[in-house]
Design a protein that fits this description.
InterPro entries: Yip1_dom
Subcellular location: Membrane
Strand content: under 5%
Membrane topology: Multi-pass membrane protein
Number of helices: 8
Structural class: mainly alpha
Number of domains: 1
Shape: globular
Largest sheet: none
Organism: Roseovarius litorisediminis
Pfam family, one: Yip1
Radius of gyration: 18 Å
Length: about 200
């Protein structure tokens, strides 16, 4: 993919995400390559996140203090993020297929991997804005949160070839509950390990 192609796909993902999803799926990339790409994007996202959290560390006494060592450790955060993404890939495919969706595992995988590319670019932009204009950074995070949901709904809709976006919303909602259970188990396991090592 050339730089102009990358830029065009990036713009398309923001403006017409369903068309971008179809184009990504049409690449028909191998699962092995996609898993490696997802792992790489996870590492890069974790690195950028770790740098940004050091630029604006959490305030002591806020919720989640028990897991501060987790989020300050690039390795642990990478494992957490990758675990969440793996659970997301499988749950979005499995739940979607239960209600008539047609997505293959590779379809969901390529779309979530691309979303991590978008997330990486966003995190870099937010990190820069935090240094120059913190309020703009907060605004960007807020807008991108809603826009990210819009993109995900369209990606799921394109992958499963649903006849209604409401089905895609339903799949995402059910997947969130499944992911929450999986992440609770992972967080508990890692949290206990961190406390045991301290």
């Amino acid at each position: 993919m050339t730089p102009p192609d990358f830029k065009a796909l990036l713009v398309q993902s923001l403006l017409t995400p369903k068309d971008a999803a179809r184009q990504l799926i049409a690449f028909n990339l191998s699962r092995r390559w996609l898993w490696m790409a997802l792992a790489l994007m996870t590492v890069l996202n974790a690195i950028v996140y770790s740098v940004s959290i050091r630029l604006s560390p959490p305030v002591a006494g806020t919720d989640g203090v028990a897991f501060v060592p987790l989020f300050h450790s690039p390795f642990l955060f990478t494992m957490l993020l990758f675990g969440a993404l793996v659970i997301t890939v499988f749950t979005l495919q499995w739940i979607g297929q239960r209600i008539g969706g047609k997505a293959r595992l590779g379809d969901i995988l390529v779309l979530l991997t691309w979303m991590q590319v978008l997330r990486l670019l966003l995190q870099i932009g937010v990190a820069v804005l935090m240094l120059l204009a913190p309020m703009l950074a907060v605004l960007l995070v807020l807008i991108s949160s809603f826009w990210g949901i819009y993109i995900l709904v369209n990606f799921v809709d394109a992958a499963h070839q649903f006849d209604s976006k409401l089905k895609s919303v339903g799949v995402i909602i059910l997947a969130v509950f499944a992911i929450a259970v999986g992440m609770a188990i992972i967080l508990t396991t890692i949290g206990l390990a961190v406390m045991g090592a301290s």
